[in-house]
């Protein structure tokens, strides 16, 4: 994104436990902190950071 408008650094999305049998989301972590629900405001994305999606089997 244009740094003149969005001063944040990279926004990285990673997964853990992402295997063929782990088809369900267990938890979302935004910069190491749990978040509720699946909505992530654009203002959080443009700040930069890391979204980790932890998967599980059921």
Number of helices: 1
Uncertain ranges: none
Major beta-sheet overview: 4 strands, mixed
Please state the average pLDDT score. Answer: 88
What is the total tally of β strands?
Answer: 4
Q: How are strands sequenced across the largest beta sheet? A: 1-4-2-3
> In angstroms, what is the radius of gyration?
13 Å
Q: Looking at the structure, what is the overall shape?
A: elongated
Order of helices and strands: EEEHE
SS-derived structural category: mainly beta
* Share of helical residues: under 10%
β-strand amount: 35-45%
Distance between the termini: 36 Å
Give a topology summary:
Elements: E1 11-16, E2 24-30, E3 33-35, H1 42-46, E4 49-56
Parallel strand pairs: 1-4
Antiparallel strand pairs: 2-3, 2-4
Written overview of the protein:
9% of the residues lie in helices and 41% in strands. The protein has 58 residues and is mainly β. It has a four-stranded mixed beta sheet with strand order 1-4-2-3. A hairpin with a 2-residue loop joins strand 2 (24-30) and strand 3 (33-35). The longest helix is centred in the last third of the chain and has 5 residues, at 42-46.
